[in-house]
């Protein structure tokens, strides 16, 4: 675990068998206009399709696969310590579709999970990058624009505070799952400190789990988490 937690790329978040199952489900899944889930100014810049959030057997199965993958990722759990997650939106972008620059809502709600504070967002790519042109996730960061077009099954997690967009698709079809998380530790700098300590502690533990160094670092991590966590 060597990545910073501010912009976190998780390669192969989905295993090969999970991707096969998702591809099979998507072949028969219904899609409707995505504008229904946009809020505020985002309504005017959202032009895509998405699976209905409720009433679909395919959506329930997809949610189960994706939640399992998120819960089983040590990197995601260590870097972010998510305590609340929204059911993912499964989006489709056909030629000419895009999602213009916008900022995610700070508070989001779902009948299944209730309200959450949206700390970070995740885009999980479900199409091979060579199968479509355009469709990059564009993030406006303090150092400038960053574009992401990851491999099928890879995910990028980024702060909800960032202005971002999905650039126009000019050919092919872009499929992705998007969700939002509330982290146990609200402050991203504190999450970064915890991530660094836990990563170092894990490396020491592999060498000698009973060493004084490992126990001290584990104590420091646990006490900081106890001090900073909100659940």
Provide an overview of this structure.
The chain is α+β, with helices and mostly antiparallel strands. It has two domains: 8-183, Sandwich (Jelly Rolls), CATH 2.60.120; 188-228. The chain is built from five helices and 17 strands. The strands form four sheets. Strands 1, 2, 4, 5, 6, 10, 14 and 17 form an eight-stranded antiparallel beta sheet that branches. Strands 3-7-15-12-13 form a five-stranded antiparallel beta sheet, with no helix packed on it. The protein has a two-stranded antiparallel sheet with strand order 8-9. Helix 1 (16-27) packs antiparallel against helix 2 (57-71) and helix 4 runs antiparallel to helix 5 (212-228). The longest helix is centred in the C-terminal third of the chain and has 20 residues, at 188-207. The radius of gyration is 18 Å and the shape is globular. The relative contact order is 0.18.
